[in-house]
Amino acid sequence: MKFYNLRNAVLCLLFLLCFFNVKAQEMRAFGNYSMYFGNKNTGTIRSVEAGIDHGDFPSLAFQLSASYLNSDNKDKEHYDYDNYVLEKLSTKGSAINTSLGLKVYNVFLNQYEEKTFTYYIMPKLNLARIRATENFSSTDYFYPSHSFDEERSISSWQVYFGIEIGYEIFLSENNSNSIAICASYNRINLTKGLSKITHENFQYERHDSFGVGLSFYLGVKKPSKK
């Protein structure tokens, strides 16, 4: 199967799972901002996410979301004996990400009714379109016409898993509105592809990402009465 066919199949599955049995569930919209503690290759990764939750809160819910991730620039410079910059290399990665999560509340607790402060665990399946970009400049002070700037980029797809653990504080009696503080782990590789285009022999193998974030949930549809 070609990858674009697999990608379309995965996206269809995400929507079907998320909207399954919608009439019996409540819908909430949410926004999230997260920061991932990067490594020497990626630096800090920032994520802005928006999506919807369908479920029985606080019990079980499906979450469908889209996010934009962006890493810090990684710079490297070469100097001559007079401390003039001869070459400068700047690399960065970004991604548009779609994810489907299964949010399970209070998985180790038997009673969660009447709680206004509860926790959840959410494994997530992710599909990301990653763009790696390199900017390279070379300066020749003796022959300025030989100086040049070059920008190259490459895009790639990645399917990966992640997990999110958080505490959610419900702000309304029907559990529609809430605030959540979360910690996340994922395997996205924002520098994927740079090894194919970079001027330097950088190592980009490591791509474990740990982060923290803050989410705001707002109820937009109440469950239908039976």
Topology:
Elements: H1 3-19, E1 26-37, E2 45-56, E3 60-71, E4 74-79, E5 85-105, E6 117-138, E7 148-170, E8 178-186, H2 194-197, E9 209-221
Antiparallel strand pairs: 1-2, 1-9, 2-3, 3-5, 4-5, 5-6, 6-7, 7-8, 8-9
Short description:
This protein is mostly beta strands. It has 2 helices and 9 strands, in the order αββββββββαβ. An 8-stranded antiparallel beta barrel has the order 1-2-3-5-6-7-8-9.
Describe the model.
The chain is mainly beta and 226 residues long. It is 9% helix and 58% strand. The protein has two helices and nine strands; from the N terminus they run H-E-E-E-E-E-E-E-E-H-E. Strands 1-2-3-5-6-7-8-9 form an eight-stranded antiparallel β-barrel. Strand 1 and strand 2 form a beta hairpin. The model has no long low-confidence stretch (mean pLDDT 77).
The main β sheet shows up as: 8 strands, antiparallel, barrel
How is the largest sheet built, in terms of strand order?
1-2-3-5-6-7-8-9
User: For the terminal residues, how far apart are their CA atoms?
Assistant: 43 Å
Tally of contiguous helical segments: 2
Helix content: under 10%
Global outline = elongated
Helix and strand sequence: HEEEEEEEEHE
Summing up helix and strand content along with how strands pair, one would put the structural category as: mainly beta
The average pLDDT score comes to 77
Strand elements, count: 9
